[in-house]
Design brief:
The protein has about 350 residues and is of the alpha/beta class. The chain has 2 domains: about 1-70 and about 175-354, QueA-like (3-Layer(aba) Sandwich), CATH 3.40.1780.10; about 75-150, Thrombin, subunit H (Beta Barrel). It has 8 helices and 17 strands. It has helices at about 1-5, 145-150, 165-175, 200-205, 245-255, 265-280, 315-325, 325-340; strands spanning about 35-40, 45-50, 60-65, 70, 75-80, 85-95, 100-105, 115, 120-130, 135-140, 185, 210-215, 240-245, 260-265, 285-290, 305-310, 350-354. The longest helix has 14 residues, at about 265-280. The chain is globular, with a radius of gyration of 21 Å.
């Protein structure tokens, strides 16, 4: 570990230029219509396909692992007792009715302050934590998530521009910024590689004998925040909770013993599986936390193939992809994606990395 700490990997190595018009503002008309760049790591060759071609690359000897987390409408707007408007952004449930949140603007927020979201929901500010986070206590009657569905908004990333009054886009985002297999509530951002799947494609994969299983990693803001340190080795990942079921652990373990390929859908799935392998030396049933930072030089032990979207420059996500596909090959592929006018980021196109 001493040698690792003495290394210097400049953040500038993970930067690239992207024309603003290539940042997808809406999803493709159909989920499966997104374009798909296929990368072969061994030959360093690139194909241009569409996501509906994904079944061509799988057979009965494969296992596909997806993150079944569900995005919650984490962004709410409320009023202080003075009448001033305040944004409340849910980060994670700590225990019972206590949540960790962001409050904006936070300059005049004080402990014990009451913020009213609606007639159904209000909250009391408990204490301030580091990095601008606050602990609050919720006050409501009934089912919290049903109330949240009524008063909250889907927390789209800032590069997707939205009018507060466009009801058509609100409905679109509620449907499309969520995977068709989302089950476990808790994320404040979508595992975007999974947005391209449809029930029909999942069924076609199963019909070919592909084993499909699920993990859960509740995606937090830390996954998407840019790295701000000049030396990426100084960056610290925020912890995110993950869960691997007994069924999934058995499927993956048996597949690895049989020499089958494990395909991870999304960087969150990669981090879940590689965290478990790194900590326990096997994939097992577990509920734990991951703060694993994957960058070039990392040795992958659980994942053989990756489906992923195109990521922001200087992000931990593009560093993970660079570790998996090789940094030079990854950035060459990104340059080609720009030339070919692929759409980037959450609602954009995707890669299959073999």
């Amino acid at each position: 570990m001493k040698e690792l700490k003495e290394k210097f990997i400049p953040i500038s190595e993970f930067d690239y230029s992207l024309p603003a018009e290539l940042i997808a503002q809406t999803p493709s008309e159909k989920r499966e219509d997104a374009r798909m760049m296929v990368l072969d790591r061994r030959s360093e060759t690139i194909e241009h396909r569409h996501f509906y071609d994904i079944t061509d690359y799988f057979n009965e000897n494969d296992v596909m692992v997806l993150n079944n987390t569900r995005v919650i409408p984490a962004r709410m707007y409320g009023h202080k007792e003075t009448g001033a408007l305040l944004e409340v952004f849910l980060l994670k449930q700590i225990a019972g009715k206590t949540w960790q949140v962001l409050l904006n603007p936070s300059k005049r927020v004080r402990e014990d302050m009451i913020i009213k979201i609606s007639d159904e929901l209000s909250l009391k500010v408990l204490t301030r934590e580091d990095q601008g986070k606050w602990l609050v206590e919720m006050f409501y009657d009934g089912n919290f998530y049903e109330i949240l569905d009524r008063v909250g908004k889907i927390p789209l990333p800032p590069y997707i521009e939205r009018s507060m009054t466009d009801d058509r886009l609100k409905e679109l985002d509620y449907e499309r910024y969520q995977t068709v297999y989302a089950q476990r509530r808790g994320s404040v951002a979508a595992p975007t590689a999974g947005l391209h799947f449809t029930e029909e494609i999942l069924q076609k994969l199963k019909n070919k004998g592909v084993q499909i299983c699920y993990v859960t990693l509740n995606v937090g803001l830390g996954t998407f925040r840019p790295v701000k340190t000049e030396n990426i080795l100084d960056h610290k990942m925020e912890s995110e909770e993950y869960e691997i079921s007994k069924e999934t652990a058995e499927i993956i373990t048996n597949a690895r013993r049989a020499g089958k390929k494990i395909t991870a859908v999304g960087t969150t799935t990669v981090r879940t599986l590689e965290t478990c392998m790194k900590k326990f030396d096997e994939i097992l049933e577990v509920i734990d936390d991951s703060s694993l930072f994957i960058y070039p030089g990392f040795k992958f032990r659980a994942v053989d193939r990756l489906i992923t979207n195109f990521h922001l420059p200087k992000s931990t996500l593009i560093m993970l992809v660079s570790a998996f596909a090789g940094k030079d090959f990854t950035f060459r592929a990104y340059e080609e994606a720009v030339r070919e006018k692929y759409k980037f980021y959450s609602y954009g196109d995707c890669m299959l990395i073999n």
